Amino acid sequence: MDTESTHSGYSYHSSRSGRSTRHGDRTRERHKASSKDSSRSERSVVINPPDSPSQESPVHNGEPLPGEPAPGGEPGEDGQDDNWGETTTAVTGTSELSVSQEEVVGLGKELQDRTQSFRRYLPLAVGLCVGTLVLATPLVFLLLPVILWPDRLQACGAACEGLFLSISFKLLILLLAVWALFLRPGRASLPRVCACRAFLTTLTLLLTMSYWLFYGVRILDAQDEDYHGVVQFAVSLVDSQLFVHYLAVVLLELRHLQPCYSVSVIRSTDGETRHYNIGQFSIQRAALSILEFYYRDFPLHNPAVLSAAKHRAAKHLAGLKVYNVDAAGSTAAAQPANGSQSRAMVAAAAKRKDSAHNELYYEEADYERRVRKRRARLVVAVEEAFTHVRRMKKEDEQASPSDIMDVREAALAVFPSMARALQKYLRTTRRQHCHSMESIQKHLAFCLVNNMSPKAFLEAYLAPGPTLQYGSERWMADQWTLVSEASVTSAVKDGTEFLLKCLDFSLAVTIRGVPYIRLREEFVDPKTHKFLLLLQSETSV
User: 230 vs 126, 154, 208, 252, CA distance in Å?
Assistant: First the structure.
């Protein structure tokens, strides 16, 4: 018993000494790491846990500051938990000036909306100011002599009064022309200023300032008494402004009407391609025209169809599993190969190459069969619903006015009979997210009001339509980015390429010049078309 007690006590002390030795090794390693960190950084701040020394005994780099008492504690408190950062709960207060992340995002979005609104209405404001200056300058030219020196002005004769009539009509025409060309709301927000508009605005301001300088030096300073000459001077200004407006019409409206380039537009996700002809444009104006064509001609972009194709390709790759049965230590279960996995997958893919097209063929055939089946059920359901509506319409003609059903109520009553077939068809074609129940009911009511056929109602759902036929939330009109190596204000030319990027797809644009066509004439003598037909009288009948 004594021996066993002695042995047990020895084991207990030896285990305590072993644990203390390991604890001391860990403590020395932590001191070494802290000394390395302090050597790398000359200045470090240690954030103590709640049980560590407070501000009354601050600690800098693990040592008390000079003049401060060393942090002391009881023997049971000298050891701290190494995981205090994970087990300590910090209680913080919320400042009255604190801003959440949602508020920061909201402020940024509000600032962006204000910037976009400013950029949208800035050209309109500039055009309004320039137009006001252009129209007011001739009137000011006529009024200043009458106000400043009316006693010394010569009488205005019949010719002068005729000039008054001329300048009145010219100003009216110029007002309508400026309103029609420059005071229109902008269709889009371009990344750069339009070079032609900037040139015309500068030319107009330069012309007006030149006339003002001449008027101030030769008429205001000299106080010219010839009022007929002042009126002619104002008429010449209006004529010059009309010619500038004519130049604006040529540059902004007529120059790009003649087609000079052929544009190829390819959508990156599904390869949908369209070709257009455009005239002399800058790159940013050509991009704007292409986007207008895109919303009119391209079918709606449907990511669900593309994700189905990716899922089919991933399923084929997921079916290839490579194992290395000759690896060391493999007994009952095979271990995955590491080095030769890629070569084995290539070999397996080559073996399955002959059968891959068969799988794709049968999969597409099965999909087309299901689409035709769902389409037939939908057509029958819609025809039955429209037949029921026509029969009820004939009955309503004989009923009292109080029993007649409204068109909206009729659409709501007929819609459940075709809703299930339409929903299944849209799910099969993966276009269920493009049509809401409210839009379908509205379209059904529109078809019933205008007495349309079932085929006219189904045309909006049997084939994908242009983007503008769907809700504005699918237009993504404010998500386009123009990517071009050349300056967007430079003119397009043969071989120009740029990219129009949206959220999940892009439009690749390639511009080719229309070739110079040389057409020749070949004269054909009308006498060469004459021939003689000889008939024998003894021919067999």
Answer: 29, 11, 16, 33
Q: How far is CA 127 from the centre of its chain?
A: 28
Residue 127's pLDDT band, with cuts at 50, 70 and 90, is: confident
Nearest-angstrom CA–CA distance, 175 and 167 = 12
Instruction: Note whether 166 and 235 are within 8 A (CB).
Output: yes
Highest-confidence segment of 89-93, 312-316, 324-328, 355-359: 355-359
Residue 382 pLDDT > 80, yes or no? yes
Interval 266-319: pLDDT, tens? 999 889 999 999 999 999 999 999 999 999 999 988 887 776 555 555 555 555
Q: Read off the DSSP letter of residue 74.
A: -
Which residue, among 468, 505, 477, has the nearest Cα to 300 in the 3D structure? Answer: 468
Cα separation, 77 vs 487, whole angstroms = 71
Which two structure tokens, joined as six digits, stand for 465? Answer: 């339509």
Q: What integer pLDDT is reported at residue 209 of this predicted model?
A: 95
Rounded to whole angstroms, the Cα distance separating 424 from 377 reads 10
Query: Which residue shows structure tokens 């644009």?
Result: 509
CA pair distance 497, 472, nearest whole angstrom: 29
CA dist 232 and 157 (Å) reads 13
Mean pLDDT of all residues in 127-132: 87
Question: Mind listing the pLDDT tens digit for each residue in 196-215?
Answer: 989 999 999 999 999 999 99
Phi, psi of 23 (to 5 degrees): -65, -40
Q: Output the pLDDT for position 537.
A: 67
- Mean pLDDT (the chain) is 76
In whole angstroms, give the CA distance from residue 406 to residue 525.
73
Instruction: Select from 482, 514, 512 the least CA-distant residue to 496.
Output: 512
How far is it, in rounded angstroms, from Cα 461 to Cα 300? Answer: 12
What is the reported pTM?
Answer: 0.66
Q: How far is CA 17 from CA 8, 23, 30, in A?
A: 14, 10, 20
263: how many CB neighbours lie within 10 A of its CB?
21
What are the E-state strand segments in 185-338?
261-267, 273-278, 323-324, 335-336
430: left (phi > 0), else alpha (psi -120 to 50), else beta? left
Contacts of 243 (CB under 8 A, 6+ apart): none
Query: How far apart are the C-alpha atoms of 428 and 488, rounded to whole Å?
Result: 43
Q: Which among 213, 248, 233 has a CA at the least distance from the CA of 138?
A: 233
Asked if residue 215 lies in contact with residue 233, where contact means CB atoms within 8 angstroms, the answer is yes
Query: What was the pLDDT predicted at 345?
Result: 62
**CB burial class (10 A; 0-12, 13-18, 19+) of residue 182?**
buried
pLDDT tens-digit profile of 467-476? 888 877 778 8
311 phi and psi angles, rounded to 5 deg: -65, -35
Q: 55-70 pLDDT, tens per residue?
A: 444 444 444 444 444 4
Distance set, CA 103 to CA 107, 108, 111, 115, 190 (Å): 6, 9, 12, 18, 29
